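Progress report, Aim 2. The chain analyzed during this reporting quarter is listed below.
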Amino acid sequence: MTKEKRTKTEKPHVYSSKAEDKKYDLTFIKEDGNRKYDLEERTTRFGKNIIEFAKLIPRNVITIPLIGQLVKAGTSVGANYCEADDAESKKDFRHKIGICKKESRETRFFLRMIVQAVSSLAKDAAPLIQEAKELNLIFATIRRKVS
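Predicted structure tokens for the chain:
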């Protein structure tokens, strides 16, 4: 059900990824007792959160290339999902979902490398690492089911 179609009495329940005090927007909508995720919105929020996290990272010879890679991988998850959503065939969809899976895994990798380089960012990176992992699992499931 889209936001425009909701009546005044229908209000979505908001879920957060574990802790309510996180600085990143990791909320998702639950409607009618079933979790319904808008994956395009979720991947967009993920990309935005990656950009906000990247702004926190101190710039030095080690982190500059990691930041670039992180932002590229983290924002491409959503871009590739949009491509998959507009796929021209089942095979094309499966391929593009596979790219989403790879990019989410790559994002998780670069988040872990940044934490290695700047250990003080571990707490800030934790919810993003978790979200990257969850997105990877979601895309793996979608890819497996489309055969």
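Residues 39-145 form a domain with the de novo design (two linked rop proteins) fold (CATH 1.20.1440.60). Residues 69 and 110 are 7 Å apart (CA to CA). These observations will guide the mutagenesis work planned for the next reporting period.
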